[in-house]
Amino acid sequence: MTTYRSILTVSILSATLAVAAAAREVISIDGSSTVFPISEAFAEEFQIETRTRVTVGLSGTGGGFKKFCRGETDFTGASRPIRKGELEECRENGVEFIELPIAMDALANVVHPDNDWAQCMTVDELRRMWEPEAQGTITNWNQIRDTFPDAPLRLFGAGVDSGTYDYYTFALTGVEHYSRGDFTATEDDNVTVQGVSSDRNAFGFLGLAYLDENRSRLRAVTIRQEDGSCVGPSVETARDGSYQPLSRPLFMYVNASALDRPAVQAYADYMMDPENGVFLVEEVGYVPLPEEAFEMGRAKIKARKTGSYFDGGSEVGVMIEDLLAIE
Amino acid sequence: MAFTSSGNLSSAEMSTRDAIGAVNRAKRIDKIFAVGGILVMVIAMGLLFALIGDLVVRGLGRIDYDFLTSFPSRRAERAGILSAWVGSILVMLTTAFLAIPVGVAAGLYLEEYARKGWLSNIIEINVSNLAGVPSIIYGLLALGLFVYGLDLGKTILVAGMTLGLLILPIVIVSTREAVRAIPRVIKEGAYGLGADQWQVMWHYIIPAARPGILTGAIVGLSRAIGETAPIITIGALTFIAFLPPAPVSGDFPFINFDWLTDGFTVLPIQMFNWISRPQADFHVNAAATGVVLMALTLSLNGIAIWIRYRLRREHHN
Fold first, then answer.
1. Span of the secretion signal (chain A) (predicted)?
2. Is A11 contained in some domain?
3. Which of the four pLDDT bands, split at 50, 70 and 90, describes residue B19?
4. Residues of B in Cβ contact (< 8 Å) with A210
5. What are the chain A neighbours of B260 within 8 Å (beta carbons)?
6. Chains A and B: how many Cβ contacts under 8 Å?
7. Contact between A88 and A210 (Cβ < 8 Å)
8. Interface test with B, best of A33, A40, A52 (most B CBs within 10 A)
9. Does residue A113 form part of some domain?
C-alpha cells in the first residue's frame, strides 16, 4: 500500500515537472463587454465550422487594449476608438494593428414609463445634467427645464471603466471620461434597467440592446436633432445615422503580425464576410454594417493597413458612410 | 415579633424578595434575548431561503443533460456550462493538491515542531491576518507574480495556485486547531512508550487530527469554488468552447498534466457573464448555473461531513 502510494506520488511529481506547453492553436479575443456578444457569436460559429479553437475574454475596452498592446491577444473588441495612451503603449511594444468597424450601436437615454415630462430633450439639457459642474447642484428635474416638475433627479449610468461611459461623456461634454460623479454607476446595464424601472424620477443611459429587451419597463427619451426633429434610439435610426450624437461604431482591432498565422487570417476573413457578419450581428441585438463596410474591412486586412483613423480619441457623429470613407 | 410593624420588613425578608426579583429579571432578560435571537435567526434564514428559493425556482427547470454537456452559446436556449463546470472542478483539484499538503505541513510544524518565540508569534499573527485579506488582493498578487513575473500564463495551474494561496491560511489554522484539540494523554502515552517525535506525529497526531484537518480543507475549498474576483484578475476567459485535454488517457503514462497549462473559465464567471446580458433567457441560464454551483458547494460540504463521521468512528474503534 505504502509503496504503491509513493510510486504514485513520484509519478505525479515527475509528470508535473514534465508539463510541456504543447502548442495548440488558439485564437484569443478579449475586450469590451459591449462587443462581447458579437465576438462570442463569431467565435462560436467559426469554431463549429473550422474546428479552430477560439477563446473570448471580458476585460472591458481599456483592459482589452492593455492586453492587446502587450501582444497577449490576437483580437480585441472596443466600444470606442483606441486612445492616445494606448496607441503609445502599442507602439512601444511594437504591436501594429488593423482597425475594423464591426457594428453600430446606440446609447439610449431612458426614464420610467410613468415619467410624462421628459419626452424630447436637447443635447444641451443632457450636458447640463451630466457635466461635472452639475455634481451636487443639478439635483432636481426643474433645474433642467422650467416646465419639468419639482422632483428629485436620480441618475443611473455605465461604470466609469467602460467604453460606453467614455463615449457617452464624450458625446455630451466633448471630453472623454468627464462627468459628474454622483450617479449610480454600474458595469451591468441590467442594474440601470432595475433602477430606472422602479423609480419614477430616475434617468439613465444604457446600450440599445438593453432598451429593446425592456421596452415595457422603460421609455426612451428622444433627442432633438440639429434640424429640430426628435429622434429616438432604434436599429433604424442608428443605421441611417439620424440618431445623434449617441450612435456609435463598435470596433474590432486585429494584431497585424498575428495575421501571419493562417488561423487568425481565416478568422479575420470570416468576420469580414457579410454573409456571416450581417446576420450574426443582428442576431445578438446590434446594428450591422452595410456590405461595403465588410468589403472595405477585407481590403484593409489584405493591404495590412495599420493604425487608427481616429487619431487617438472618439469622434461624435461618425456615420456608416464615414466609416466607409476611411481609407 | 409583636413590635414589628407591617411597614418594616426584616432584612432577611428584604433580601429574599430582592433575590426573587433579580431572578425574575434575569429570566425576563433571558427570554428577551432568546426571542431576539430566534427573530434574528428567522430573518437571516428567511432571507437565505428566499434567495436560494428564488434561484431554484428560476433556474432548476433549465438544468438538463444538454445544459450540463453543452458549451456556451450566443443563443440562450442552446447554451450550456460544460466548459465552466469542468474548469471549476479542474481548478479545485489543483487548488486542493497544492494547498492541502502545504497547509497541513505548515500547521503541523507550527504546532508541534516550531520553537515558541517571537518569530513563531509573528508567523501566527500573519497567518491569521492572511485569512482576512480580501480575495482580490490574492488575484493581484498572482497576476503580478505568477502570470507576469514567472510567466506562467493565464492557466488552470495559476488559478489553482492563486486559490491555493487564498485558502492556505484556512487550512493552516484548522490543522492547528485540530492538533490542539487532541488530548495530551495520547501524545504523552506514545512518548512514554518510547516513540520518537516523528512516530508520534505519524501514528497518533495525524490520524487523530484528520477529521478536523479535512473539515478545514473542505471549508476552504468551498470558499474557493465561489471565488470570482481573483480568477477574473488573473485573466480567466469568458467564452471557451473546448475542454482541456483529459487528465487520464489510455496511452502511457496514462495521466497527463497538459490541462494545467490550458485556458479555462469557471462557474461564477459564466454566471456573471450571463446575468449582465440584456436577454431574460440568459438570466435564467445564470440562475441555473447558480443552482449547479450551489449543488457543488453543498456536495463538497456533504463529503466533508461524511468523511468526518467515518473517520471519527474509525478512530474511536
1. 1-20
2. no
3. confident
4. 278
5. 16, 19
6. 87
7. no
8. A40
9. yes
User: Across the interface, which of B71, B237, B261 has its CB nearest the CB of A19?
Assistant: B261
What pLDDT band is residue A22 in, cutting at 50, 70 and 90?
A: very low
In this predicted model, which residue has the larger pLDDT, A18 or B107? B107
Residues with Cβ within 8 Å of residue A324, at least 6 apart in sequence: A290, A292, A293, A296
Q: Domain of residue A219: give its range.
A: 106-239
Same domain, A131 and A207: yes
The CATH number linked to A218 is: 3.40.190.10
Angle at B67 (CA atoms; ends B66, B69), nearest 5 degrees: 60
- Asked casually if ipTM beats, i.e. exceeds, 0.85, the reply is no
- Number of folded domains in chain A? 2
Chain B contact for A64 (CB, 8 A cutoff): no
Q: Which residues of A touch B275 (CB under 8 A)?
A: 188, 190
CA-to-CA distance for A219 and A108, rounded, in angstroms?
A: 9
CATH superfamily of B64-316: MetI-like (1.10.3720.10)
Three-state secondary-structure class, residue A248:
strand
Residue A8 resides in a domain: no
Q: With an 8 Å Cβ cutoff, are A21 and B72 in contact?
A: no
Q: Is residue A269 part of a domain?
A: yes
Determine whether the interchain pair A53/B276 forms a contact, defined as Cβ–Cβ distance below 8 Å. Answer: no
* Same domain membership, residue A144 and residue A227: yes
Nearest to A10 by CA among B245, B106, B255: B255
Mean pLDDT of A9-35: 63
* pLDDT band at A17; cut points 50, 70, 90: very low
Instruction: Evaluate if pTM is beyond 0.90.
Output: no
B151: left (phi over 0), alpha (psi -120 to 50) or beta: left
- Tell whether A190 and A217 lie within a shared domain: yes
Split at pLDDT 50, 70, 90, the class of A15 is: very low
pLDDT for position B1? 46
